[in-house]
Predict the structure.
Amino acid sequence: MISSEDLPDIYYFNPTCEYAVANGHSSWQPNQLLQKMEADLAALPLYIARPQDVVLVNELPSESFLKQLERLEIIAPRFVNIQNATKNREFISTPKNWLLPWGWSPVAHRLLNPLKPSCSASFKSSPVAIWKPEYKDIYSKKFALGILKEVLPQLPDENLLPFSLLPEICYDRKCLETLLNRWGKLMVKEPWSSSGRGLQRITKIPVAPKVWEKLMGIINEQGYAIAEPFLDKILDMAYQFVLLNGKVSFIGISRFITDQQGQYQGNFLNGWPVSIDRQIIEFAEEMTTLLVPCLSETIENSLLAKYYEGNFGIDTLIFLDKNNHLSINPCLEINVRKTMGLLALRFEKLLAPGTKGIFKIYFNREKKFFEFIEELQDKYPLQTNNNQITQGFFPLSPANKNTLFGAYLQAGIQPIF
């Protein structure tokens, strides 16, 4: 008899899931650019899938791309066109283990619903097998703020975000103006957003009318905004976890990069760059030892453990306080889905021991991804030892002449940002 674990899991890349959760309608669609991003990067789950699994894609990867994976002894899963998968009777009826979208939402449930009857009993009994309206809140930054408020009293005050700097929920302009007077500078966030989107910095007074228009747009569209003091950031770091049967397991640390607007740019691989001060790295490691057990226990006693199963990440922020001392916000936000940080942990295994690198998402309106690949492969040819990367450039996602977005790995050389 075939064990359910031997059956294929079905992966689907939908990183706009938080916006779909915010909207609440199963017919919601991202804008055209975000749809293009999801389509171009649809193959990325291949790095966390097993050989017997299936990755749903808009376009099947080329033979040359698959051949390239073989150089690193990556055994690719099966790729299936997403439209065929949800309409083909044979595929629909084939026994499956779990459905594993990047993140759950009413849209993901509608799309994958035809495949549910042939899934395993363990999937069908999981809270993620159906969508309930009450699930919406665990995906919000308001929920993460609640976890932060529970975690802080359990930890030593030293080096932690003080209660006076806790983010606040704002339902109107007056609240934002009050916090602006209190803190001087603000970072205002959409409650449901991802990868550093939905952020608005306020660093200049008076606030420009267009900025107020955007802030009121957030409140009108999502019901409220999350406002926090604009801190003197030193490092971004995320803890990667998996939640199963109400129990949290720690997977590892992802060290990510954001731009000046706070949008996600990529991940450092195999530790921090040598350019980062050793004292900062030691502080990050010390905080990890302190925070991970506390975060895990708090999550296990929260609604997240009741309503969700799967991967999630908790973003933290290391910053300098008013006395120029290192401090940390231990729960800046919770990403209730798979994350680029999870992929980064897998990509570290592609590198030879001791080799550092970066993983980055590519987008440039002026240059297609395949042009970028040709340029970088010529400039930084891939070098391997025992099927692991020692140096060079490696494209992680397929590219053709219409591909705008891509993912790549760069190792053993000065990173390109």
